[in-house]
């Protein structure tokens, strides 16, 4: 089998192999994970089952990355990274809303904490890891400053409108919006996200394509023929199944995670950070693999696109869910979180403006992620 250059796929791809696909792990694991999710949902698991579910969860993450690459190879960039980012975020939103509906008043800040954790993990963790890995391997990483800068500007605007402004409005006491303000934030989030997707996929698609060593954008996804429509559709279905399993099994594992967090003396809010890390594993691995193939722009599309989708889709969904939710909806960030967000945006601007980055920029973003994780443990 000859590997497809730049994507880590093979010409004789398992998904395109007809009946042989049934024998491949990338097909078997998502189905197994879905069955395990159905059997374990809502049940108390013993230590052995917790470990088994964790292994299946890891397999589902790897399967999701594989099928995301198949779909991405078929549709090309930047559509491929958009598929994974939106799929993960839609399922994440569904999980947040479900937990808030069933969790009562103590989940008033769940949406804020989850979205902020996702933003910090994507804009500092995934982005920083991609830059560091690419710089270590190739010396300097190249990307499109126009597209990446537009994505970062959209993330900053979404985060400020939805997570910072509630601290400074006066219609309601505390860090929350009034109903009309929440409606405005939801509509603005959808508009910003929709305009970005239109820009990324239609009007200025070339701003989001990988940049080769010569410095000009190119659309040479690979030298091998892309998978057929049937194979891509099968991978898309398996991708959605794998992502549902990842989020669902992460929820199944949450009692064990909560027990572990309590055992080591961490704050209960750290559970949300752990869940966010698990949910974002597919995108992290996909971005890492793209960075190792000198496709930093694909990695940045994943990182910033996921941050954007986390805010742009979550806030409108939560705004609608408030019709059925009781109690306040706390969206405003705490002071420490606002400082970290401001520092992340500032550093991000300085990172993307040149259109190239070294190990230093990647390391700085990873240190900011470490600061977020440390302060989540020691607020």
Would you give an account of this structure?
The structure is a single chain. This protein has 379 residues and is an all-alpha fold. The chain has a single domain (14-377), classed as Up-down Bundle (A middle domain of Talin 1). It is built from twelve helices and two strands. The chain has a two-stranded antiparallel ribbon with strand order 1-2. The longest helix has 36 residues, at 229-264. It is globular and about 55 Å long.
Secondary structure layout:
Layout: H1 25-40, H2 47-75, H3 79-103, H4 110-138, E1 141-142, H5 145-164, H6 179-203, H7 229-264, H8 270-279, H9 281-292, H10 296-321, H11 335-352, E2 356-357, H12 359-377
Summarize this, please?
Keywords: Membrane, Transmembrane, Transmembrane helix. Helices cover about 70% and strands about 0% of the residues.
Secondary structural class: mainly alpha
What is the CATH architecture term? Up-down Bundle
Helix content: 55-70%
Low-confidence stretches: 1-23, 215-223
Give the biggest beta sheet.
2 strands, antiparallel
CATH superfamily: NCX, central ion-binding region
Quickly count the domains: 1
